Amino acid sequence: MTTRALVEIKDLNFSYDERPILKGINMTMPRGKVIAIMGGSGCGKTTLLRLIGGTVTPSSGYVKVDNQIVHELGRNKLFSLRRKMSMLFQFGALFTDLSVFDNIAFQMREHTDLPESVIRDLVFMKLHAVGLRGAHNLMPAELSGGMARRVALARSIALDPMLVMYDEPFAGLDPISLSVIGNLIRRLTEALGMTSILVTHDVHESLKIVDYVYFISEGVIAAEGTPSEVRESVSPFVHQFIHSEVDGPVPFHYPAEKYATDLNLENRFA
Amino acid sequence: MQRATMDLWVGLFVIAGIGALLILALKVGNLGTYSEEKSYTLVGSFENIGGLKIRAPVKSAGVVVGRVMDIQFSTKTFDAAVTMNIDDRYQFPKDTFASILTSGLLGEQYVGLAAGGDEGMLKSGDKIMKTNSALVLEDMIGQFLFDKASEDDGDDSSKF
Amino acid sequence: MPRRIVISIRGVGHRVIDSVWRLGYAARFFSLILLKSGTSIRRFGLIIRELYFTGVLTMIIILVSGLFVGMVLGLQGYETLQKYGAETAVGTLVALSLVRELGPVVAALLFASRAGSAITAEIGLMKATEQLEAMGMMAVDPIARVVAPRFWAGVISMPLLAAMFSAMGIFGGYLVAVVLIGVDEGSFWSQMQSAVDFRFDIVNGIIKTCVFGVAITAIAVFEGYDAQPTAEGVSGATTRTVVTSALVILGLDFVLTSFMFRGVG
User: Fold this and answer.
1) Is A263 found in the same domain as A247?
2) C167 in reach of chain B (CB within 8 A)
């Protein structure tokens, strides 16, 4: 099992400025699967992606990608590893001064010596896969949110990576685009034989397309399982999350003084 | 922005910049008349150089023939040794007079060379024998008062 | 009371240490730029593209400002000089003021305001929209690809722009003094040429300009890269670029002038 896993996270601890964000995380992500990491806002999901990508280093424990411990890699080795990984940022992070075509061709031009004719074909193929071949001349500023996300998706598969990480791919999209993106993520993962890690809090869309789910709450894994296991989970946190309940383990009220004290009720009628 | 247009503008920009530099160097500065041409050295000793500075011009008949290169105080003769670079085109006879003059009323000081009649010419490193120091205001006033006093003395010598 | 004093002293100390730390960080960043300039030099197209945005687009404001500064110098200079009957020296006045001081300093200030702030904003926005991080994740070093070309473009543009400023200024002085007022054209140019020494005045001016160029661009690029990835962060960084550049320019100008023009007149 361990040799088949693409990403292995063991006893991971991460703190930012003395504040612990992730505590004792253990995860295994097998190859060729779509895995979701869910949780409330600010629970450390994005940090987890950054740890896998090597942008930040853990306080203790390790992250192994393709059997290499990420934070122990030297500069060059890290860069080689990154060429086999991709990240889809929350709002696309397209290069605003390059056209759609150039955005996708960017990695090909930087890392390969392919002639322009080959690059052209590859870019069109990637764009075709996401349905935006006709938009190749547009600038990122001219794209709608959904289109920008799709272009970013095409860009992330430009060099046929073995791992793609998606940071909130469903955030802020209209229902049609939501469905399109979800669909694309599933299809591309299977077609290219790669592994996808989704960080999201969109329960509905992600449960449709993922193979395994991890729930993170307060820096630890609150629950994990396949979509059907998760839907039937009795864990209160998971239950509140899946069924979008207003109050539960994640409270409605931000910690505050007693209501009576704030309204000065004790002294008012004294 | 098409690459070709951008390249064109950048090229024009660099040309304009270098052009401006050349204009400054040639038309505004003295690079055009800057003599990196051959020159030879002459030295002159002056009792007082007044306000003469390095890079001051050396003129003869009002025409710039060289520049002052160095001014040093000589502890042997206790006067100022002025080293001048003179353009090779201009040769001066051995009895040339070197004076420190002022251009205009408030102008900068320069070295004026007045040629003598000697047939032998000064060579590089030669010393100009005849020099006139700069006019120093205090000395002039002192001299004036002294002269004035001598005049009066001549008239009153019989009084005492 | 003493407690409050202790707190404020601690605050001052904290801020000083922060500034020193930041200065060290900036210095390390600067050396990183120099180390990673290989890509920019091998792919010169990157620098050319930045030269367009930094140099060409700043040209207009430089030329116009230069013209006006020169014209004002000519006007003011003439007013004062003609009281002493020395109005033919107005050419010298305009040329020396521009070449030694105003050209390098004013052009540098304008460059910092227009090009420097633009560079900071651009890099800051790229940071705020995660473009720099995306580039890093694609195994392309953002310092080599984004920062270094802009740095070298700024360093190359600055001397050229300052020269254009001075040249336009002298032309402006010429317009006012000779064409408008009627000062003798021959004396105007000949007095100027005899007073402006190439090695001493012009070259020193160019050296100043190069130093300013390096300083301004380094500040602009650093502030952009170090900006907080928010709207306020980027706007704060842009302001800091202009203010810090202005102070550094004027400070460096004093230091350089005292070295270069020691013992003149």
Assistant:
1) yes
2) yes
